Amino acid sequence: MNLNLPASGEKWENGAASHTYVRFMSYADRVSLQDVLDFGAAEVSDDSPFGPLEPLRTPLSRGAWVDVAPGWLRAADELFEALCRDVPWHAERRQMYDNIVDVPRLTKFYAADEPWPHPLVDELCRAVSEHYLPTLGEPLVTAGLCLYRDGADSVAWHGDRIGRSRYHDTIVAILSLGSTRTLALRPAGGGASLKFTTGHGDLVVMGGSCQRTWEHAIPKTRDVVGPRISVQFRPAGVR
Ligand SMILES: O=C(O)CCC(=O)C(=O)O
Ligand SMILES: [Fe+2]
């Protein structure tokens, strides 16, 4: 598979990307809370692109938890290839002390009211929403995508605390595609870190107070790793 991805130090050009995503309706046009409620586990058959969602929970301190469903997405190859190709990935720069530096990963955020890049992303969001609806009481409606081009790409310690997650429990579900990377978690304010493996097709869900009371990161690695895409599903007003 030739993905033609530049390494993290190279300039990223996406001008030639085919913008096939515009032909899909927006997630908000197609999904309502009722759709999520109607989307039963019975719809998962042997030839479904994803398996039944039966995550294993790791309780953390202070009301936080992490669920892991390894290999949940069966159609991971197909989705990884399509997202590498079709997403108009953005390289960002930000101020760091006196310098402007490259953000070491590429991103693209999809709001609920815009077309998403692949119909399977909509379907996966609906399935995860349905599973967590009894806990969360609202659907997951946005898709944040990140592309880590190689081991030099990363995201530093943080909580997803922009919006309601600053004060309230919430859920952030992360689907991983491509190379395996580590998702590290540590208590906010210090403490030993835990490491979760995020492999091709795995779903990792951070819940409860996790965004407020814990921090997470994708550390850089010296291992030779290829690209990884993460797709993060969040409720409205959480970033
Ligand atoms: O890529 C990941 O798995 C984590 C991304 C993340 O934490 C974020 O973008 O807020
Ligand atoms: Fe995050």
Description of the structure:
By secondary structure, the chain is of the alpha+beta class. The protein has one domain: Alpha-ketoglutarate-dependent dioxygenase AlkB-like (Jelly Rolls), CATH 2.60.120.590. The protein has helices at 27-30, 33-38, 76-86, 119-136, 210-213, and strands at residues 56-59, 64-69, 90-96, 99-110, 140-148, 155-158, 172-178, 181-187, 194-198, 203-208, 214-218, 228-235. The strands form two sheets. The chain has an eight-stranded antiparallel beta sheet. It has a four-stranded antiparallel beta sheet with strand order 6-11-8-9. The chain is globular, with a radius of gyration of 17 Å. The relative contact order is 0.22. The model is unreliable at 11-24 (pLDDT under 50). The structure holds 2-oxoglutaric acid (AKG) and fe (ii) ion (FE2).
Give the arrangement of secondary structure elements.
Layout: H1 27-30, H2 33-38, E1 56-59, E2 64-69, H3 76-86, E3 90-96, E4 99-110, H4 119-136, E5 140-148, E6 155-158, E7 172-178, E8 181-187, E9 194-198, E10 203-208, H5 210-213, E11 214-218, E12 228-235
Antiparallel strand pairs: 1-2, 2-10, 3-4, 4-5, 5-12, 6-11, 7-10, 7-12, 8-9, 8-11
Bound molecules: 2-oxoglutaric acid and fe (ii) ion (FE2).
List its salient traits.
18% helix; alpha+beta; 5 helices; AlkB-like; 239 residues; binds 2-oxoglutaric acid; four-stranded antiparallel sheet; Jelly Rolls; binds fe (ii) ion; globular; Oxoglu/Fe-dep_dioxygenase_dom
